[in-house]
């Protein structure tokens, strides 16, 4: 493994892990604030469920960040979806009261059957829970950015020869060049000299001798 890559990875590991754990803690605290401030009877105490899902997803990102970018990205998406759903649930309740109407503030009796207006504790719980959810999303995004910006290990180049080559001890003797033959005037290549061929000696053939001619005597 490349030494530069390993050093950069180990230097980013603490920030990566702590960012996800801090985000998970912020999400868990944000989901518990409405119940702590307004009590278990608070009408927005049920936002603890989506906030707990978001905190669990961020904690899983801190544990499984080394399994690849896809796994970490999916876990952060689930956490963000759960936290946003919890915030929308809280913000939808005041809008519902504004549209349907509310009864008079206590201790006045409510004879119309409409819901009571938001209390100070419920308003405080909505504000703090939304703020902690946004902080958890931003801190978790810091860890996600570190995961996606980690450099892939580069292939180490092959070892190069650092020792200069040793000069050869043999001394080459230059070949003496012979006198150059003059080229023909017409530019043609000079014909190579061929040795003259010797003809074989002439041998006379022996002819066979003819028999002597005998003349016959004339007849009378």
How many DSSP-defined strands? 0
Summed over residues and divided by their number, the pLDDT gives a mean of: 77
Main β-sheet, in a few words?
none
* Global outline: rod-shaped
Q: Uncertain runs with pLDDT below 50, 5 residues or more?
A: 1-10
Order of helices and strands: HHHH
Rg (C-alpha, Å):
54 Å
Strand content: under 5%
- The helicity comes to 40-55%
Secondary-structure class:
mainly alpha
| CA distance, first residue to last residue | 140 Å
Number of DSSP helices?
4
Tell me what you see in this structure.
With 220 residues, the protein is mostly helical. It has a domain at 10-102 and 118-148. It has helices at residues 3-38, 48-63, 69-100, 120-148. The relative contact order is 0.14.
In short:
The protein has 220 residues and is mainly α.
Question: What attributes does this structure have?
Answer:
single chain, 220 residues, mainly alpha, 4 helices, 51% helix, rod-shaped
List the helices and strands and how they pair.
Elements lengths: L2 H36 L9 H16 L5 H32 L19 H29 L72
């Amino acid at each position: 493994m490349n030494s530069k890559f390993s050093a950069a990875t180990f230097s980013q590991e603490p920030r990566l892990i702590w960012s996800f754990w801090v985000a998970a803690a912020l999400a868990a605290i944000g989901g518990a604030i409405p119940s702590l401030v307004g009590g278990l009877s608070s009408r927005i105490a049920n936002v603890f469920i989506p906030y707990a899902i978001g905190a669990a997803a961020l904690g899983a990102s801190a544990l499984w960040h080394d399994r690849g970018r896809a796994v970490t990205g999916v876990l952060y998406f689930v956490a963000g979806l759960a936290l946003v759903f919890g915030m929308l649930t809280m913000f939808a309740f005041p809008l519902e009261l504004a549209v349907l109407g509310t009864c008079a503030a206590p201790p006045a009796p409510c004879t119309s059957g409409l819901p009571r207006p938001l209390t100070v504790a419920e308003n405080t719980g909505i504000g703090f829970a939304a703020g902690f959810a946004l902080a958890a999303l931003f801190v978790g995004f810091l860890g996600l950015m570190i995961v996606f910006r980690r450099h892939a290990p580069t292939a180490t180049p092959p070892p190069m020869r650092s020792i200069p080559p040793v000069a050869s001890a043999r001394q080459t003797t230059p070949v003496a060049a012979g006198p150059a033959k003059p080229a023909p005037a017409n530019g043609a290549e000079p014909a190579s000299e061929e040795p003259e061929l010797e003809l074989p000696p002439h041998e006379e053939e022996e002819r066979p001798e003819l028999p002597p001619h005998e003349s016959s005597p004339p007849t009378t």
